[in-house]
Amino acid sequence: PTELIVTGGEGSSHDPRSIFLFDTGAMTWKELHRDERMLGAFAATGGDVYFVAYAFDSPTFTIERLALAPGALPVTVTPRLEGWGRVGLAVAQDGTLYVATTTEHIVLAGDGSVRSRKAIRSAYPSVDVNDRGDVAWSMGFAGKREVDTYVAGGSADARRIIDRHVTCEVPGPMAPAGVQDSLVVDAQQAGGV
User: How far is 91 from 22, CA to CA, in rounded Å?
Assistant: First the structure.
């Protein structure tokens, strides 16, 4: 692909309020949407980009859908969800939304209705879904623990590098207090969390 979707802000990547389309072949930027709210995670499928938009008046956010078409405006597709800070977002080809926050995993239908919610702590919430519908969630746990890994795809060199660094420690202020994250792949996600 020669086009990437990027969020950013005026003079700062720490205050993202715009969604851009970056053409890596032509090395050009096109602003698709500018918002008054702070924007968070985003995911794209088909001709749409979904993004987190944080509320001004409370520690909540919504998921918005923006068609990748000239003049398109975002449409709110979820109710207000609790949380401020890190949020992971993924969207399946059928429009199912997967949302990971620091306190829960949420699965939403394409119309924004809640399919399932599961309480879970994660210092670095993350989620991804592949074309088959397999979902990978970050999962938090207390204490130190070895995590078995399996890398699907990727070169032999990439797998060796991941295996060599799978137990590396995060030093200093970036280390989460009392929580380490792991990644859990759920191939049976279609039935719920």
Answer: 20
